[in-house]
Design brief:
Order of helices and strands: EHEHEEH
Structural class: alpha+beta
CATH superfamily: Glutaredoxin
Number of helices: 3
Largest sheet: 4 strands, mixed
Helix content: 25-40%
Strand order of the largest sheet: 2-1-3-4
Distance between the termini: 18 Å
Radius of gyration: 13 Å
């Protein structure tokens, strides 16, 4: 039996804006439902850490980066469309 992959996410947001709060909530819900106990989420506020945003070439917020497992993926937006987000991250939307 193989060990399930650990998913590492970095979510770039801008303060406590509505879109940022929605993206955090949607990502948290997605991880609870589909990646229970095998994910980590780092929230980066671009207003307090602009150098990190520049280093990662973040041009819009919210932006999600799937750091691992490879390949890395980027998704811009509130992550509202769960099925599309799962597909973009290489996850099976039908698996729970």
């Amino acid at each position: 039996m193989t060990k399930a992959a650990m998913y590492e996410f970095r979510l770039f947001v801008a303060r406590d804006t509505k879109n940022s709060a929605e993206a955090i909530s949607n990502l948290s819900a997605l991880c609870r439902a589909h990646l229970k106990n095998r994910h980590s989420i780092e929230i980066v506020d671009v207003t307090s850490q602009p150098a990190r945003a520049l280093a990662e070439d973040i041009r819009m917020t919210p932006t999600l980066i799937k750091v691992g497992p490879r390949p890395c993926q980027r998704i811009v937006g509130t992550l509202q469309q769960t099925r599309r987000v799962l597909l973009a991250l290489g996850l099976d939307p039908s698996a729970e």
